C-alpha cells in the first residue's frame, strides 16, 4: 500500500514538472522575434519553346457499333503506319490517344445509331517534320496543338533562374541590413518555388478532312512562342 502511494506521489511530481516546463516553453515561444526581416525575390528567364504536340482525331458514325469501329480502324491504321515511318525518339514520337464509342438515341429513347472517335498524337522537337506529317495524314482532323519546353531546356532555365533569385535574395538582405545599421544577417528560413509560364494547349480550327486533295500535303501552319520559367525565393533573415 505504501509502495502504491509513493508511486502515485512520484507520478504527480513528474507531471507537475512537465507541465511547468511546457508552460515555460510556450511563454518563450510567444515572445516576438526581434530584428527579423521577411521578404521574397523573383527571377524570370525566357526561352523559345522547343517542343510541339499535335492531336488529330477521326470521327465516324453508323447504325452498328462494329461498323463504327471498322471505319475508325480503316482511317487510323494507315495513319499510324505512315507516322511510324517518320518516328524518331525525341524528334517525332507517335502514339494513339483517346478512343470513344457511344450510342445515339432517337426521339423515342431507343438506340438509333452509334458514333465513335479515335485520336492520334504526334509530339517532339522536330516541329517542321511534325507539321508536315500532320498535313499529310488523310481522314484526320487536327483538334489541338500545343508548345512547350523540353525537360533539358526547362531544367537549364530553372537552374539559371534559381541562381539569380538566390543571389538577389542575398544582395537584398545585405542592403537592408546595412540600411538599418547592422553589420550583416543570418538565414532563419527559406523557401524556393518554381513556376512555368508557357503557351497553353489550344484548339485548332483547321478542318483537315474538308481540305482539297491539291492541298492535302500542305504542312500544318504553326509558330512557336516564348516560354517563361519563374523562380521565387522567399524567407526570413535575422539581422545582426
Written description of the protein model:
The protein is an alpha+beta fold and 240 residues long. Helix content is 37%, strand content 36%. It is built from 4 helices and 7 strands; from the N terminus they run αββαββαβαββ. The strands form 2 sheets. It has a 4-stranded antiparallel beta sheet, with helices on one face. A 3-stranded antiparallel beta sheet has the order 1-7-6. It is elongated, with a radius of gyration of 32 Å.
Described by the principal axes of the CA atoms, the overall outline is elongated
- Alpha-carbon distance between the two ends: 60 Å
**Tally of extended strands?**
7
What's the rounded overall pLDDT mean? 83
Strand content: 35-45%
Query: Helix tally?
Result: 4
> Can you give the helix content as a percent range?
25-40%
Unreliable residue stretches: 7-18, 199-215
Order of strands across the main sheet:
3-4-2-5
Element order, helices and strands? HEEHEEHEHEE
Structural class: alpha+beta
List keywords for this structure.
alpha+beta, single chain, elongated, 4-stranded antiparallel beta sheet, 37% helix, 240 residues
Describe this structure in a few short sentences.
With 240 residues, the chain is of the alpha+beta class. It is built from four helices and seven strands; from the N terminus they run αββαββαβαββ.
